[in-house]
Amino acid sequence: MKLVALFFPKASIGTYLVAMAVAIALPIFAFVTLLLLQLEDNQRSTLRRETAQDALALSRIIDRQLQDMATTLRLLSSSPELENGNLASFHERTETALRDNTLFVIAVDHTGQQLLNTRRAFGTPLGKTANIPALEAVMASGRIEASDVFRGRTSGEWVYNVTLPRKNEPVAALIITQNAKDLGKLVTTEGLASGWSAAVIDESGHVVAATGPANLEPGTPFDPRILPALIASRGVFQDETILPHMLLGYAQIPGWSWKTVIWGPIAQASILSTWRFLIIGGVALVLVAVLGAYAVARQVRTTIRDIADMANRMGEGHIVSPVETSVIEANQVAIALSNASFDRSETEDRLRFVMHELVHRTKNLLTLAQAMMRQLAKQSDSVETFRAAVSDRLEGLVRSIELLTSEQWGGVSLRRVVDIHLHAFPQSREQIDISGEDFVLKPDAVQNLGLALHELATNSVKYGALSVPQGRVRFEWRDVSEEDKPDALLRFTWEERGGPPVTEPSRSGFGTTVIKAHAASAFRGTVEIDFRPEGLLWVLTAQRATLERE
């Protein structure tokens, strides 16, 4: 703490802001000096990265062209005319399809003899293709490949081929050929600095197409001193002996044997900086920073006092209005304090409402518990019987309360209420069939229907269908509203079968009171109970409005 007090003594916010301005300005001088020294290195690194990226971009352009040619070959290879051996129709169709392009198709047999060439009319005598080694390489590999650049016999131009091998006869391979100068239209130096060139190089190191001041013609060997260094998928090459003051970027065209290269002079960045300008500018910066810090300190001090006054009034319990300042963040704090004061007032009102609601619900639960215990006390012949009966009923009531609490007393789905009460008897889960359209019950309906279901299930487990393995219970509910009556009605049916013979009890106990009188009263409906020999039948017809949460 003493060390902190030494470096940060008690002072006004203005003093700290001025000190902060000076502390920021001084390191700037050292930082700017370092930047001046490193700027050229950074520019060189950026140029190397951009050069490699430009070479990669060019390789993607050439790759798209080669891929398009390969796709065209695949489509042509599956044409019906070619499959049927109708080369004349195939020639006519292919020539028409490629008429607007600079591409030509050649079909050859396994010896390289041209069967057709869309550069010439069908039937014109043709010799073997000029690039037999490329054809043999493709036939051996079994995949589409691009050839090296060569002088075409038919066209007399520098051309390259993309060849697709076929296993059919007589056409053993399909070739798409293009003049190298036409491919050169895709090789551009647009976006590069002045004095830069670009080229596409084949596998043997000859220029396929090029553009720029280097003025390399197709078929020209590229510098053999550079080619051995271009072994990575992409990168840059720099050698002051071979390329003085120049940089070369290259990229392998994925899936093909060609490369793209771009090269040109390195522009030396001009960095105009002097110590005199740096010192004068630095002093001016410090003075401006100090004056600005003082002005800001005054404004911030006033703002902080206004916010502190709001906080004091909020602490006294008032709802405060936000103050308007010139500091956006301070305005946000003021709005947050104002909202917090309003929220606190609302929370206090909500707490008072919750306490009132808690008292109301507690009274209702206690009243229900008292009525339940009075009824059970009249019918119990011993303390142990009374205790067991009370514990059993309270357990059912607790399930409903836990459900409501998990939903913050906002209502629970009918299906969930049914499941929680009927499945409380795990030994009978497979014996109960439940059906009906689900909806959300009111909190009071959750408790009242839960009591009735608990009594029905408990009675069935003790004396009814659920007391034996072969017994079955069907519990369903459905809408029984009549069209001429506006009030919607629901009918709940509890039907037991397969249990011990049923006889009507000689006297009504608490359970009968719950499932009959209490259920009818709670839901403003009617309850029918039929003690049939084959099993108990309980039917509750109630108004939907007394059950469903709005």
From TrEMBL:
Reactions this protein catalyses: ATP + protein L-histidine = ADP + protein N-phospho-L-histidine
UniProt lineage: Bacteria, Pseudomonadati, Pseudomonadota, Alphaproteobacteria, Hyphomicrobiales
Gene3D superfamilies tied to this protein: Histidine kinase-like ATPase, C-terminal domain, PAS domain
Positions of transmembrane segments: 16-39, 277-297
EC number(s) on file: 2.7.13.3
Molecular function terms from GO: kinase activity
Residues in Signal transduction histidine kinase HWE region domain copies: 357-438
Pfam families registered for this protein in UniProt: HWE_HK (PF07536)
Highest taxon listed in the record's lineage: Bacteria
Protein name per Swiss-Prot or TrEMBL: histidine kinase
Keyword tags: ATP-binding, Kinase, Membrane, Nucleotide-binding, Phosphoprotein, Transferase, Transmembrane, Transmembrane helix
